[in-house]
Amino acid sequence: MQTVVLAAGQGTRMRPLTERRPKPMLPVADRPLVGHTVTSAVDAGASSIVLVVGYEAEDVRSYFGDTVDGVDITYAVQEEQRGTADAVRTAANHLDEGPFVVLNGDALYDDPSLASLYETDAAVGSYRVDDPTNYGVLTTDGAGTVTGVVEKPADPPSDLINTGAYVFPAEAQTWLDVGESERGELELTDVLERTCGEYAVESVPFDRWLDVGRPWELLEANEWKLGELERDIRGDVADGADLRGNVVVEEGATVEPGVVIEGPTLIRTGATVGPNAYIRGATLVGEGAKVGHAVEIKNSILMEGATVGHLSYVGDSILGRDVNFGAGTKVANLRHDGGDVKLTVKGERISTGRRKLGVIVGDGTKTGINVSLNAGVVLSTDARIPPGEVVTRDR
Ligand code: TTP
């Protein structure tokens, strides 16, 4: 079935990581976030894909080109981010007259559930959560047919939330001109509501689903996709290195003597690790990144060209492109009171729900020697932290 993937978002809640790239292009294991959505869609039966792009569109275009595994990809440019119904309307002249699937390009969907969605004539992917109050919550008639969706209800009508994966009947292409919602957006959920009024819309339960909106959710996305890796050693690994479990060392990567890696870990091409480094947890060492002597990295993402050269500890953190940590830079990833680490997202201090979270570092930032970074600190793009500082607030 023809498929529209929404990837025009700015990802403002993901800043500073999205200052120089669109959220769908953030790295998740061996590909960008939206690469997983597109591959899953192709595997589930997408006959063609329209990618709706906007912010930093060229990044998305140059990554995918014109086809993925033999399936044609076209691009619809949404100049202004006016809402998800507007995004699909932008894609409409790329669609033929048949039914169509819509997927959020910033969510991970489990493959078997997505395949079930593609089997239906009209459906919305649902996911069961303990606390639905922050989501779009589906109402059903008790027999599994969806009757509507309520946004962020104080008193949720069910524990099934909207995953942003839909199958719409062909007729819905004529319903995309919706009015503005209370929050001033043109919402695809209004199109869903109308579809529920005229068609039997199934709720297709997803076994696993993750909406990647905030920085720690990028860590969770990597934990998921790195966890699916199978051991594969192609790079240059010294005899004295000890690679345990599901470790992938891509061709062109180097692992020096004395290194211990406990998978799941992906060392991408051009990266170097060691000598004498320790990597554990779900860790991505991006293309050309460097983990040097006596460095410990735990459950973290080092984007392309990031360098942690010597005598440093990085835990549960995200280091943007070309970040450079000076010798002895240490990251705290646990509060003394054991409480959940808080992070500031769009000016609002919020709990991440994680006991373990380190720092989020924008592209190009450098720390001097012996810098201490407190749990939950966000460093902006191209920041400079002088030697010896103890950083307890965002910079
Ligand atoms: P959101 O996560 O609501 O928006 P966003 O990605 O811009 O992130 P933030 O809120 O942090 O700024 O969007 C959900 C999906 O829909 C996502 O894949 C982006 C896409 N989208 C569009 O393509 N066009 C739009 O106008 C909007 C609002 C979203």
Automatic annotation (TrEMBL):
Source organism, top-level taxon: Archaea
Keywords per UniProt: Acyltransferase, Multifunctional enzyme, Nucleotidyltransferase, Transferase
EC code: 2.3.1.157, 2.7.7.23
Domain Mannose-1-phosphate guanyltransferase C-terminal residue range list: 261-378
Gene3D superfamilies, per the entry: Hexapeptide repeat proteins, Spore Coat Polysaccharide Biosynthesis Protein SpsA, Chain A
Reaction(s) the record says it catalyses: N-acetyl-alpha-D-glucosamine 1-phosphate + UTP + H(+) = UDP-N-acetyl-alpha-D-glucosamine + diphosphate; alpha-D-glucosamine 1-phosphate + acetyl-CoA = N-acetyl-alpha-D-glucosamine 1-phosphate + CoA + H(+)
Nucleotidyl transferase domain span: 3-223
InterPro entries: Bifunctiontional_GlmU_arc-type (IPR023915), GlmU-like (IPR050065), GMPPB_C (IPR056729), NTP_transferase_dom (IPR005835), Nucleotide-diphossugar_trans (IPR029044), Trimer_LpxA-like_sf (IPR011004)
UniProt GO MF annotations: glucosamine-1-phosphate N-acetyltransferase activity; UDP-N-acetylglucosamine diphosphorylase activity
One Pfam family here: GMPPB_C
Pathway note: Nucleotide-sugar biosynthesis; UDP-N-acetyl-alpha-D-glucosamine biosynthesis; UDP-N-acetyl-alpha-D-glucosamine from N-acetyl-alpha-D-glucosamine 1-phosphate: step 1/1; Nucleotide-sugar biosynthesis; UDP-N-acetyl-alpha-D-glucosamine biosynthesis; N-acetyl-alpha-D-glucosamine 1-phosphate from alpha-D-glucosamine 6-phosphate (route II): step 2/2
Family named by the database record: In the N-terminal section; belongs to the N-acetylglucosamine-1-phosphate uridyltransferase family.
Protein name from the UniProt record: Bifunctional protein GlmU
